[in-house]
Amino acid sequence: MLLEALYHVPRDKWAYAYDVKTIHLRFRTKRDDVAEVHALTGDKYNWGGTFQELPMEKAAHDGMFDYWEVDVRPRYKRLAYAFKLSSGNETVYMLDTGIQHEPPAPPGELFEFSYIHEIDVFKVPEWAKQAVFYQIMPERFANGDPSNDPDTVEPWGGKPTRLNFFGGDLKGVLDHLDYLSELGINAIYFTPLFVAPSNHKYDTVDYKLVDPHFGTNETLRELVEACHKVGIRVVLDAVFNHSGEHFPPFQDVLKNGEKSKYRDWFHINQFPPEVKDGIPSYDTFGFFGNMPKFNTANPEVKQYLLGVAEYWIREIKLDGWRLDVANEVDHHFWRDFRQVVKQANPEAYIIGEVWSDSLNWLLGDQFDSVMNYPFADKVLEFFCGGMDGYNFSNEMGSLIMRYPQQTNEVVFNMLCSHDTPRLLTRVGNDKRKLKLCVVFLFTYIGTPCIFYGDEVGILGDSDPDCRKCMEWDQAKQDRELHDFYKLMIHLRKQHNALRQGRFRFLQATSNDPCIVYERLDDKMHFTVWMNNTDKPRTLSHPMETEDWRDALSNEIVKPKNKMMNISLDPFAFRILYRHLT
């Protein structure tokens, strides 16, 4: 065994309380190097009476390592533990004090999980585990009230630019709630709604006032109430990293300079605040002079922004916040933000916009979830021919091992957004590849999100082209694709195994882009078969039982001589299931 590859620390994603009775332990070994790993567990005050040797399951792998996992339910909420590793004739033990070849003498020198304190358990909203999100840019979804259109409004469906307007508003969303309910989604994420001069509204001027081109605060209240009546949750976008340049406190700084009482609300590096050669003399989002960055460590700024967060939770019974540019705001602010929001609504869902490994924000004291752009990147790379099944399984295993299980169950998975090209564009306008991506999205662990219009085949390159108007003319919609989305949403919502069940690759090999994977809980077992090539393929995998059915047609599908053989057209899939109870 390569001892240098062994790794465990008694904290964060390696040892954590999943709930008030269960501790999850994870352990890392070199890829394909160790045959068995056992967790030696017990109570340090009563080791002999509580000792258990628990086999660990190989839960995931990446290109270099295997990751082992076990659920432990300690009798007294305390846990002392070590690991026993076996390969051939070799056995070693890993303790808190290091690696040794002799069995430990408990309880000394063991790792410890001192106590499961309920207040410390990372709890995520249960409803988010069941959610299917639909992301809406209000300006581009539907124009329900032409009387509030901007003066410069253009005809619906025109070419989007960074500056133009088409008149979408909240009344337009309200008018199409039946469409959303019929599609099957049960949660909406809105990009910013508050007063701002741009079409995207990420340059906020008034954080407590709905932009008049979208409607009024009362319109938003009416919309949220209507959503709740049909079982749809609502999450708004919080832009707390920066404001717009027309935000009154920043205007005061521009006017009064160093004498402004708001000078410390922002990061002013040099007075007067100005932009020279494209570089502002104050910190901003990127280098956009019209988006000055807040000093969130300033007590007045913190009080103001936390007041905004609480206001909308209480005012309209908001179900959560998506946090823009969340990784550039200090952790102290987000810890206080969580306290305020969860006190106002304990089931509020907090999603941070962080594009890379986000563990620092996902340890129970800040966010519930993040926008999982690494998921989108790897899925699209795979289904667009950029890697084989072996490397894809490595990449997905690495993503699963990034976070504790409760985060994985609600991580915000999407295939595109207002910041990326459209899904159909990203797969080269090949609807077969799009369907493979969507099947994977809806049969994978986490909370899936659809970007408005993807379900009817809207195309679009990078911003601003991805922000096209929703197509409401059914003659111009891809209705077959719409019905496919509807089918996959229904399948996911119908079966807990597809939401919270275990995920594992069954077949993912080198130089072959075809994969087979499974999702299962204690009631249902699903297998998903994908031919990610341009030629017909037959995929085979051992199956002991004969009680399989097609999940979409309910047709009986039996293995032959305990080998399941699934013939698939190019870029096609099949989903099978069986009942376990």
Outline the structure in words.
The mean pLDDT is 97. It contains 16 helices and 30 strands. The strands form seven sheets. The protein has an eight-stranded parallel sheet with strand order 20-19-18-15-12-11-22-21. Strands 3, 4, 7, 8, 9 and 10 form a six-stranded antiparallel sheet that branches. With 581 residues, it is α+β, with helices and mostly antiparallel strands. The protein starts with 14 loop residues before the first strand and ends with a strand. α8 runs parallel beside α9 and α10 runs antiparallel to α11. The longest helix is centred in the middle third of the chain and has 18 residues. The chain folds into four domains: 118 residues, Immunoglobulin-like (Sandwich), CATH 2.60.40.10; 310 residues, TIM Barrel (Alpha-Beta Barrel); 53 residues, Oligo-1,6-glucosidase, domain 2 (Alpha-Beta Complex), CATH 3.90.400; 80 residues, Immunoglobulin-like, CATH 2.60.40.
Q: What would the keywords be for this entry?
A:
globular; Immunoglobulin-like; six-stranded antiparallel beta sheet; 4 domains; Oligo-1,6-glucosidase, domain 2; 581 residues; TIM Barrel
Give a short summary of the structure.
By secondary structure, the chain is of the alpha+beta class.
Give the overall form: globular
The CATH architecture of the largest domain can be given as: Alpha-Beta Barrel
**N→C terminal distance:** 40 Å
Task: Give me the count of strands.
Answer: 30
Helix content: 10-25%
How many strands, what sense, and barrel or not for the largest sheet?
8 strands, parallel
Beta-strand percentage? 15-25%
Based on CA atoms alone, the radius of gyration comes out at: 26 Å
- Tally of alpha and pi helices: 16
The domain tally reads: 4
GO biological process, one term: carbohydrate metabolic process
Domain Glycosyl hydrolase family 13 catalytic: 135-492
Organism: Fontibacillus panacisegetis
GO molecular function, one term: hydrolase activity, hydrolyzing O-glycosyl compounds
